[in-house]
Amino acid sequence: MQQVSLAQLNSATKAEFIAALGDIFEHSPWVPEVAAADRPFATLAALYASLKTALLRAGEDRQLAVITAHPDLAGKAARAGTLTPESTAEQTSAGLDRLSEAEYTTFHRFNEAYKARFGFPFIICVRRHTKDSILRALERRAKSNAASERATALTEILRIVALRLDQRVRAPDRLAVHGRLSTHVLDNYSGRPGEGIALELFELSESDERRLITRAVTNDDGRTEAPLIAGRPVPIGAYELRFAIGDYYARTKAELADPPFLDVVPIRFAVAEPEGHYHVPLLCTPWSYTTYRGS
Amino acid sequence: MQQVSLAQLNSATKAEFIAALGDIFEHSPWVPEVAAADRPFATLAALYASLKTALLRAGEDRQLAVITAHPDLAGKAARAGTLTPESTAEQTSAGLDRLSEAEYTTFHRFNEAYKARFGFPFIICVRRHTKDSILRALERRAKSNAASERATALTEILRIVALRLDQRVRAPDRLAVHGRLSTHVLDNYSGRPGEGIALELFELSESDERRLITRAVTNDDGRTEAPLIAGRPVPIGAYELRFAIGDYYARTKAELADPPFLDVVPIRFAVAEPEGHYHVPLLCTPWSYTTYRGS
Amino acid sequence: MQQVSLAQLNSATKAEFIAALGDIFEHSPWVPEVAAADRPFATLAALYASLKTALLRAGEDRQLAVITAHPDLAGKAARAGTLTPESTAEQTSAGLDRLSEAEYTTFHRFNEAYKARFGFPFIICVRRHTKDSILRALERRAKSNAASERATALTEILRIVALRLDQRVRAPDRLAVHGRLSTHVLDNYSGRPGEGIALELFELSESDERRLITRAVTNDDGRTEAPLIAGRPVPIGAYELRFAIGDYYARTKAELADPPFLDVVPIRFAVAEPEGHYHVPLLCTPWSYTTYRGS
Amino acid sequence: MQQVSLAQLNSATKAEFIAALGDIFEHSPWVPEVAAADRPFATLAALYASLKTALLRAGEDRQLAVITAHPDLAGKAARAGTLTPESTAEQTSAGLDRLSEAEYTTFHRFNEAYKARFGFPFIICVRRHTKDSILRALERRAKSNAASERATALTEILRIVALRLDQRVRAPDRLAVHGRLSTHVLDNYSGRPGEGIALELFELSESDERRLITRAVTNDDGRTEAPLIAGRPVPIGAYELRFAIGDYYARTKAELADPPFLDVVPIRFAVAEPEGHYHVPLLCTPWSYTTYRGS
User: Fold this and answer.
1) Which chains touch C (3 or more CB pairs under 8 A)?
2) Which of C158, C160, C117, C114 is nearest to C135 (CA)?
3) Which ipTM was obtained for this model?
């Protein structure tokens, strides 16, 4: 996927414009074609707004055509490798390419039931989700009604489009599609930032499996050099941060029990707003700790 | 194992006394026989002190005989079912009857190396330990010297004896052989004790396996009806307490995220003093929590 | 005021009964006279219930007579020393005997306005209040209506009666008229209770004056030997607890700044339920602290 | 006092240079005169280093002359208004112009005793101090010896000089002479920053008087728009931060007691390093709070 600047899009011919953005909506180049007439766009937000208007002002039939142009989540096309490159990357982000046979069957069954009920595939912006939160959404939305699901499908398509634009178009502004997850360790024993503390971030599944997302070590301000997650949505789901404070205090002159009362401190929390800023600090001593949703 | 009162022991014939306490030291009825002459005992502590003096004033040969009368930990006798009933119960308490084949081999190898080096079996008061802490002690003590290990073996034998006395003899006083593990949930969101919160206590192995010790629900004072562990030593090792505060707050009118930021809160801590009182409270809101070693 | 046992009251003649309890209601011996017929009372609660019923079932005129039999709060009778002994003690408890001339004038003005509006004096159970909370209640209730104020006056009279019974009658049960204020210091730096920490409890006025209620030093469990307030209502009002943790840490080997970051830690809180249990703990290190309403 | 740029100082004639910086050392233009020869200075740090070297390499007599050129702290010259403008501003910063007659007498007595013992006036960089910390330093240093006090006087003079340079010379770099005091309120009840919370910062004297330093209201990130103290040293001394969280929670839908358990939360702390960064956050609910030295 090649990046293009907003200026280039503004000065492009209509054909070039469609060549650049034709696949922003799945198999639906007519949407950017409509939006092309609104050029020039001062901001990426304006381009996005134009695309959104084009979709929402189109008739129900055209909207439904866009909806049905989407592939099944974790479906046969994914297995067969016939998805668009962007769909492939998106489904991979949520781990849909790593399903067990049982999970694949569950997804398949849910998808078929959904399609049988509503006449179009289940659409969700998978970059904002984990496997578990997709399944929960599928269960919940399968009990909804067609009108509401059509509206939800359009909302999710626009979220997918916003993330594709964010990745593809260089512009002076950014769409509000990124979340952030960060941490900070304060050592209340010494009154200083907790420096050199190893930490790990895991994604947790409902069945308590953990998948390592990243490892880091705190710097002299008690923070990690970069946020644990940034530049993308923080997928809806459960996480565990693990802080190796036992090793940290063993390196200081703190008087510790043997084994130390606290060693690896696990903090479990869930993300509900993928575009939110989640700051999850740890205030600790060898005998106590506090965590909270910070800012 | 039948209980006997201190008064009965005081008024018993010497033969009856030995019949009651002859197996307090492993295969060494001579120790209680010596102590019998100190009767009457005003307290259980006095009886214990008399037994301790009898052992420590005996010659090195008799002490060594007591030491070598002990079976291997997790050894062939345990497998063959030829341990004394008390040894069997003790080894079971630390899970030594549930060893995998690999663990059995490790124990066997360590025991043999220890015996080859020191000429007597590795002795430890297993009721004060978990499988992991026994293995760590074995590794550490295998590097010690014979004089120090003989002294340590006598210390551990006296700990075993104190626990056996505690279980067998009813007396006005208690030996200081019990620890306690308790918890308390304070809901800082409502300013009240956290009532009706389900919690679980697990023992953790170094390989991160968890073994459920107990389940409880907090009462209207935020405490469990009984301590999580009491009336026995709290085995040296790692533990995890899990508090289902997500369910608790879902039952109140608290405004929560979906999924809630905090659901099941895990607290990991280690016990270093089996006779200590470990109070591990949780102060929580839907967005924060604090834990510490309390009192 | 002499104590009497419930058994004595049950076996007393009617005249003796009235002699013992005749002044339980201010200048209204007819109320205990009615209740005397309900004897014997199994519990103090039953005696109280009988007195309450006698008052509430009486006609409006008799109730109003009881109400108007009460003296002004902080009024001329108090100054002149012509109150009943119990009224004197009660008004003293809230500091109404220590009013400045300006405060006396304020009370006088409020009382007169209240009486002019409702035709009876302002009644409040002063043992449950501080000077400030009485004034706030006076301001609020002065805007109420007569029916509501008559009902409130009866409620307050019954509170006064319950406290008088609690002090005067020995019985197997206690009325729920006592609150409690307690504290506990946990040293999260050492993982132990904070022992030997000097603390002071002040009552705060709205004008930020502080009046010392009690001093104490924490024991080896981090608690004070007795609750800071017990055996009586905790007056509605604002309080400040001050913990001298700087001196405490200076006695330990903790590494401190000079001057120490934390020295005397003040905790300000208010009591709203005089019969409630207020536990206000402090979790501290030389660099941090936490407080909360505990249990 | 007029600002001058480092470039101007570099290109100035020697006379101009001395005109600009001649009073950087109290009545001692010879120090900048020596330093003038080291021009050009790439940085303010280099200029400061040159001045420092000029002072420290001078003979003891010249150093002593610089020391004795300083006025008494809070002395007659201050009262008579005959101090240099910079000394006046400095003494004012620590409140030495607002002494009571008793305090003036104490300072006078201490100063005279100090001068009688050492032969030169007591010198301290008052911008780094409060009245109380100056008095404590005076008491402590009065017991020192002459050699050590001469060295301390030079250190303090160089601190004064660094602060004067910082105010007077515009340069690409800054000397490390500024501290910072900041705060942050996290509402653990709602999981959001505490917005719109009024707070006050007081300086506390040892006699518990408070002097208002600044007022602020937290913004939508729970912080104040500017640090509470910045761009100058944070004077060594005791402070109280007061957060009006009662008013804050009264504006939300939180269920509160009446009066609320927590209303104005006072946090007392002391500053020991004037160039340090003091971050003093508050984590709160209507029923609990936590504070700590953050970063």
Assistant:
1) A, B, D
2) C114
3) 0.93
